[in-house]
């Protein structure tokens, strides 16, 4: 299935529905299977970056489980009940983040711009959607690029313990911030010199329906 | 069409970057501005295009700029950026994560052009620039040269009345350069006026009518390009290497100690047709030699050094560093033997000051056994490359030229046995070349080795004792530099040799 070509708003609507479902499924016995099914879908769909997402999701689950169980027990809840409530919350968060991770990873800023322009959304909404869903993968790529730069200059960040690796990862925050500012400047410059106007609705070169055309046909296949 | 009268621009330093520049650009005129790195070319180009001071404020800005007879300040932003297109030297500064077609279409979509017309225009430009293979690709996944061509196509999309190109041939291989020149000539009717900034005039000689030399922010009067090409003194006075003149021939020789050996390397990274980017690469780099690596844009040069450093996974093959198999080595361990200097140094800078960068080059982030000695080494390396005054500056605040010098200082301070220089920006102006020569001479004196990746064939011819040609995923030529330009593999590229006049109609070489 060409998930990258599915209209962004369809994917967004699907993610929202799934999230609403997850938050209504208060019982962990419903929430956990839903979370697992969502993760299974990501796996089957071969969404890029899933390994990194799973690591983050595992960390999130650990933090939620630990903090909720301790907190609820301090409030006098029995351990088993505290565990079931914490598990339910973890499951909701996993389902929610997985659903939006899918939307983010399978939607390029270009396809979001096209879907928004075809829907005749105001330019400000077009821009906000494109940047919100587009900038996170860009920042993640920059985070990886900085790590590669550290490696390429001899800094050992792979063959070290988890805590040292975590410390090095946190140390990338400052250069990442510098890079984020530069990126914002580039985007702003690009919008200005290419005439992006907040007052005028845009057109799009892509054919947009339930699917969004990913590329212009080859020269010989283009209609006159 | 465009008039600059006594324009000065400065960013807070003691002297302005542009000092009292005067320029008249008539409709139909095509002007080349040549100057050394740091002479103020980019500032001038951005001023002419209205970026400075409208989008990028300058603390010092004076003088009068008129666009089509009106003060530029009175021209609306939409009208200004519709009528003037610009491509920056650092093309990444104007790109974001759009697709190739998205970027070309962006200005047209913003102007509410109907879909069929936008598609037609994209098609014309992609055909013109031979970008068909890049359809559907994300711009940030392209090679530097490919990005630049897409950015130029995007700047042309809206049919500007003035096109401003800042170092447009940077990162382009000779055929892509010829294609760009041919396209600019073919579109003569569509682009009424053209302003180009370059260090090397020979690359764009065929598309311009006149040249203005820029030295320390001062712009000389334009002269016919043909008149100026052969006058060495004029170029030297502007601190630029005279075009098509040999500087000196390298007399390096390998001492026999192999520092890097690559055998039967095949990458996991594949091309769109499913073939690996590198299929069967083998090479040796020995101490005491400077080896040039050349190849088309997208040939896999970047993938090759990434594979050597362990940043790109390999499917098979053997990498040996200083006699030891490096397959299981981490990237950091490999990097302690191999220093890498990309063209855009921003990619590998991440410390907060220049001095910290140099210290990091020596310590690689490990605990420093002797901080005073390390600091002293770092300061000495920075001083050698003229960066003593910038030790506390943030590396991102340096100019591209200063960042390139910082790269040399860091590589020297690190003392790596092999340095990979990817398209150094310093090769075309006298001061920059002096620094590059200093770096190369120091490396040779210390029996190290250099791999120089470059499309600047004159530089390769000048400084390299051996040339490797990467084509179709393999090293198709490995031999002495003097034999490289006549070999069969080089002939297949269809490139002119170093210092040869470029053909005016290159299409036979493009297929």
UniProtKB/TrEMBL annotation, chain A:
**Cytoplasm as UniProt keyword:** no
- Keywords assigned: Membrane, Transmembrane, Transmembrane helix
Q: What is this protein called?
A: Energy-coupling factor transport system permease protein
InterPro entries given for it? ABC/ECF_trnsptr_transmembrane (IPR003339)
UniProt family annotation: Belongs to the CbiQ family.
Taxonomically, which superkingdom? Answer: Bacteria
Tell me how this protein sits in the membrane.
Multi-pass membrane protein
Major location, coarse class?
membrane
Q: Name one GO cellular component term.
A: plasma membrane
Location relative to the cell: Membrane
Q: Which CDD domains match?
A: EcfT (cd16914)
TrEMBL record, chain B:
**Which of UniProt's keywords are assigned here?**
ATP-binding, Nucleotide-binding, Transport
Report what the protein is called.
Energy-coupling factor transport system ATP-binding protein
One Pfam family per UniProt: ABC_tran
Against SMART domains, the record matches this protein to: AAA
- The lineage's top-level taxon is Bacteria
What region holds the ABC transporter domain?
2-241, 260-497
Taxonomic source organism: Hoeflea marina
Transport as a keyword of this entry, yes or no, is yes
Q: What family, per the record?
A: Belongs to the ABC transporter superfamily.
Q: Which residues form a coiled coil?
A: none
Q: Which GO terms describe its molecular function?
A: ATP binding; ATP hydrolysis activity; ATPase-coupled transmembrane transporter activity
Q: Which GO terms describe its cellular component?
A: ATP-binding cassette (ABC) transporter complex
* Residues spanning the signal sequence: none
């Amino acid at each position: 299935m060409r998930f990258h070509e599915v209209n962004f708003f369809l994917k967004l609507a699907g993610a929202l529905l799934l999230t609403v479902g997850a938050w209504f499924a208060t019982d962990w016995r419903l929430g956990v299977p839903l979370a697992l099914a969502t993760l299974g879908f990501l796996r089957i769909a071969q969404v890029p970056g899933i390994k990194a997402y799973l690591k983050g999701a595992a960390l999130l689950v650990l933090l939620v489980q630990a903090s909720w169980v301790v907190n609820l027990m301090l409030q006098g809840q029995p351990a088993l009940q505290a565990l079931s409530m914490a598990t339910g919350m973890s499951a909701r968060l996993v389902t929610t983040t997985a659903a939006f991770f899918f939307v983010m990873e399978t939607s390029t800023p270009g396809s979001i711009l096209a879907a928004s322009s075809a829907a005749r959304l105001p330019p400000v909404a077009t821009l906000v959607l494109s940047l919100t869903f587009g900038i996170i993968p860009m920042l993640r790529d920059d985070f990886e690029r900085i790590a590669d730069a550290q490696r390429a200059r001899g800094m050992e960040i792979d063959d070290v313990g988890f805590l040292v690796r975590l410390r090095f990862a946190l140390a990338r925050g400052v250069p990442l911030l510098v890079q984020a500012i530069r990126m914002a400047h580039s985007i702003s410059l690009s919008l200005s010199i290419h005439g992006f106007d907040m007052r005028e609705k845009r057109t799009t070169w892509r054919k947009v329906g339930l699917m969004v055309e990913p590329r212009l046909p080859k020269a010989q296949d283009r209609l006159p | 069409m465009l008039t600059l009268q006594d324009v000065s621009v400065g960013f807070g330093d003691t002297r302005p970057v542009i000092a009292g520049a005067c320029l008249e650009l008539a409709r139909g005129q095509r002007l080349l501005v040549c100057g050394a790195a740091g002479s103020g070319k980019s500032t001038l180009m951005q001023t002419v295009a209205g970026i400075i001071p409208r989008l990028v404020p300058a603390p010092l800005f004076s003088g009068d700029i008129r666009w089509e007879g009106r003060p530029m300040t009175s021209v609306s932003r939409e009208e200004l950026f519709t009528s003037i297109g610009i491509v920056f030297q650092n093309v990444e500064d104007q790109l974001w994560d759009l697709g190739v077609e998205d970027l070309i279409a962006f200005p047209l979509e913003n102007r509410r052009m109907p879909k069929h017309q936008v598609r037609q225009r994209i098609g014309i430009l992609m055909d013109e620039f031979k970008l068909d293979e890049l359809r559907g690709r994300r711009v940030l996944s392209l090679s530097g040269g490919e990005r630049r061509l897409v950015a130029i196509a995007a700047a042309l999309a809206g049919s500007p009345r003035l096109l401003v190109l800042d170092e447009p041939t940077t990162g382009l291989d000779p055929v892509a350069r010829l294609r760009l020149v041919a396209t600019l000539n073919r579109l003569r009717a569509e682009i009424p006026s053209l302003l180009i900034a370059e260090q090397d005039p020979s690359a764009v000689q065929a598309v311009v009518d006149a040249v203005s030399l820029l030295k320390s922010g001062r712009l000389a009067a334009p002269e016919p390009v043909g008149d100026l090409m052969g006058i060495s003194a004029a170029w030297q006075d502007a601190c630029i290497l005279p075009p098509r003149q040999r500087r000196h021939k390298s007399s390096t020789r390998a001492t026999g100690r192999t520092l890097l050996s690559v055998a039967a390397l095949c990458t996991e990274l594949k091309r769109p047709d499913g073939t690996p980017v590198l299929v069967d690469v083998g090479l040796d780099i020995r101490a005491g030699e400077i080896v040039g690596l050349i190849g088309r844009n997208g040939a896999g040069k970047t993938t090759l050094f990434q594979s050597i450093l362990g940043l790109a996974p390999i499917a098979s093959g053997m990498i040996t560093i200083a006699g030891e198999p490096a397959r299981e080595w981490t990237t950091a361990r490999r990097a302690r033997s191999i220093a890498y200097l990309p063209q855009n140094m921003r990619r590998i800078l991440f410390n907060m000051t220049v001095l910290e960068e140099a210290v990091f080059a020596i310590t690689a982030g490990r605990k420093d056994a002797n901080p005073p000695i390390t600091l002293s080494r770092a300061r000495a390396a920075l001083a050698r490359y003229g960066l003593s005054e910038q030790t506390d500056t943030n590396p991102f605040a340096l100019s591209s030229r200063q960042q390139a010098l910082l790269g040399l200082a860091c590589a020297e301070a690190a003392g790596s046995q092999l340095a990979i220089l990817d398209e150094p920006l310093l090769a075309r102006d006298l001061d920059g070349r002096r620094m590059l020569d200093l770096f190369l001479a120091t490396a040779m004196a210390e029996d190290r080795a250099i791999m120089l990746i470059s499309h600047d064939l004159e530089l390769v011819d000048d400084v390299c004792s051996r040339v490797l040609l990467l084509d179709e995923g393999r090293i198709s030529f490995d031999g002495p530099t003097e034999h490289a330009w006549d070999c069969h593999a080089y002939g297949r590229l269809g490139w002119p040799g170093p210092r040869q006049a470029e053909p005016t109609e290159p299409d036979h070489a493009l297929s």
